[in-house]
Here is the input.
Amino acid sequence: MNYCYKIMLRIHLLLMSALLLSETSNAQCTANAGYSVHRCSTDSTVMLGGSPSAIGGTPPYTYEWWITPIPYIPPSFPYLFASNILNDTTISNPTLIYTGSSFIGDSITFYLRITDNVGCQSIDSVLLTTSHFGVHVYTWSYNIYQGDSIYLNQVPNVGGGFGNSTYSWAPTHGLNIANLPSGFWAKPDTSIAYTATVIDSKGCQKTGGGPTYYINVGTVGYNEIGKENIKLFPNPTNDIVYILYNSKISSIIRVYNSVGQNIATVIGENELSFMNFPNGIYHIEIQTENSNTWHKVIKN
Here is the structure.
């Protein structure tokens, strides 16, 4: 009798185990598209999806990512689809491959549908937001007397970003406020170039394509600043730029790149070599005994 009981008990346990296994394998499947993602305009390796992107159900799973088609510029390619933006729309964790800035708006909702091995389906979504910045190289130049102040209220040559943005000016020398886009005073005691950087609500940032302001500070009247009639040639150049003065003077020459960094300084020379510099726009400050002048040189 005990032997028969043990056999029946074992059969019962096996049946219960099979039932539990069946219930587990047929559990509800759930899609997991992951957390919201933000990319700065220079990012190129944003990954979507959860860890894992499919939960429950019966593996293996199939994956399908899609978006609402996005109007695109130029009109010859009128819409962007998920296949234009992701490296693969049929894997669990695709990577963003489109780094352009022609989205209408600054956010995209991606949808994920999973299907398990027995046909269970589930859908989830994730929001991708992007910081878009605009940059140009226009600059404003002013001449002032030493000891004077000037009110700077032009639009900086960088802007945009996601949400509310703040600005940071460099250098801060002579500025009464250094975190406004415009509408502040400058009182530098020497000629200077101010460059703006914008920082958005996500911490992404972008620096202007060059200084927004050039302030030439002279110790003489406006009509005397630059009286040496300095000329730089050839311009554009691919190597040497010669500096021609109409009188024999001593000078200090400083070369700034497009983001306002001083990359070279020479004293008493009448030529500059751009051979080792990349192509682009450079700003040249020439300081003589009684003036500071600024010049723009293009390397191509």
Observations:
- Residues 18-25, 220-227 have pLDDT under 50 and may be disordered.
- Residues 61 and 277 are 53 Å apart (CA to CA).
- The helical segments are 2-25, 82-85.
